[in-house]
Every structure is written in C-alpha cells, then in structure tokens.
Amino acid sequence: MFLTLALVPICLTQQEQPEAPDRKAMPIGRLYKLAPAAVIGVMLAGVINTGTLALLPIYFESFSIGGGGTVRGWAASSFNGLQGGCPTESSADW
Asked: With contact defined as beta carbons under 8 Å apart, do 58 and 79 qualify?
C-alpha cells in the first residue's frame, strides 16, 4: 500500500523522463570472471526452481487429498520458501 502511495507523486509529475544510457550486454564469461558465485548461484536457483515448480503439481496429484490438494501443496511450498528467506533477510539488515 505504501509503495502505491509513494508512486502517486511520481505519476503526477510533469517532468520529462531522463535519457536512458546506452548499454551493451555483458558476455557470460566476463560476468563469471567478475562474480563467479553469483553466476553459479543464479544458474542453480533457476534449475532448482524450474524443476520444482514444474513437477510439484504432478507430485501432489499422486496423493488422494481431493478438493484442491495440488493448490494446497503449491501454497505450502510457496509459504515454506517465504519462511526460509525471512531469517536471511532480517540478518542482512543488521
């Protein structure tokens, strides 16, 4: 809600948007030399998250929960990910 309220003055301004700088894509090899842990972490997160979210509905359909078991399983998985990130986020603020 606060983000929405903060955007109101920006949307109402008459000032022109600044010119965007010219950018070039960075080759993956150069990025890897600059930050190898970041490249590996992003690739692993992509592989793990894609596989998990693609196979999660199939996994939960194998249980005979009935009445939206797949949706409940997906929600539980999402909530678990949210809870897992909270300690990390709060410790990063210190």
From this structure: no
CA end-to-end span of the chain: 25
Report angle CA 80, 54, 58 to the nearest 5 degrees.
90
Question: Tens place of pLDDT for every residue, the chain, 94 residues?
Answer: 788 888 888 888 888 888 988 888 899 999 999 999 999 999 998 888 787 777 877 777 777 666 666 777 777 777 776 666 665 555 555 5
- Does pTM surpass 0.70? no
DSSP 46-74: HHHHHHHHHHHHHHHHTS---SSHHHHHH
